[in-house]
Amino acid sequence: MNIETTFVDATIVDNVKNALRANTKLIWIESPTNPLLKVIDIKAISAIIQKHEDILLVVDNTFLTSYFQRPLELGADIVLYSITKYLNGHSDVIMGSIATNNKEAFDKLKFLQNASGIIPSPFDCYLVNRSLKTLAVRMREHMKNSLKVALFLENHPLVVKVLHPGV
Ligand SMILES: Cc1ncc(COP(=O)(O)O)c(C=O)c1O
């Protein structure tokens, strides 16, 4: 599709800044990243492109979900989710979603969705709707449990390194 890409470690904001080119249309980040759980400063990256109205910032917010992190409020234009993971949380659906507050991007994506027919089934939507009712409870427990495990492992003599944004 004639799309050029530049891969950088976005935990260092200057790497992103230095990677911008005349033909840059989109910055795509994921935070925390899968699987290394690196955390990226969404607000700082959004600030870099504040004067570039033609560059969109896309954030994959799959791991924290909207319960813990709201990228649109931090300057992102588009937020992407693999609903398959925490948003659904019951391992019985494969689905994705995009949220945007950018009308132009919305219209283009809505056209593509309609034109290519990439819509989920009513039954899968029903399952995700069921899941979202317990999102808050599940995310709080995931955080509590994973932090406890991470802190335990961090102090374990046989463990070299623990990857968890909370530690
Ligand atoms: C952060 C993140 N985004 C997106 C995806 C893709 O998810 P799916 O398999 O639901 O398309 C994954 C899958 O591992 C992921 O970890």
From TrEMBL:
The protein, known as: cystathionine gamma-lyase
Required cofactor(s): pyridoxal 5'-phosphate
SUPFAM superfamilies noted in UniProt: PLP-dependent transferases
Gene3D superfamilies, A to Z: Aspartate Aminotransferase, domain 1, Type I PLP-dependent aspartate aminotransferase-like (Major domain)
Family under the similarity heading: Belongs to the trans-sulfuration enzymes family.
Top-level taxon in the UniProt lineage: Eukaryota
Keywords, sorted A to Z: Amino-acid biosynthesis, Cysteine biosynthesis, Pyridoxal phosphate
Keyword Amino-acid biosynthesis: yes
Pfam family, one: Cys_Met_Meta_PP
InterPro entries reported for this sequence: Cys/Met-Metab_PyrdxlP-dep_enz (IPR000277), Cys_met_metab_PP (IPR054542), PyrdxlP-dep_Trfase (IPR015424), PyrdxlP-dep_Trfase_major (IPR015421), PyrdxlP-dep_Trfase_small (IPR015422)
Pathway: Amino-acid biosynthesis; L-cysteine biosynthesis; L-cysteine from L-homocysteine and L-serine: step 2/2
Enzyme Commission number(s) of this protein: 4.4.1.1
The keyword Chloroplast appears for this protein: no
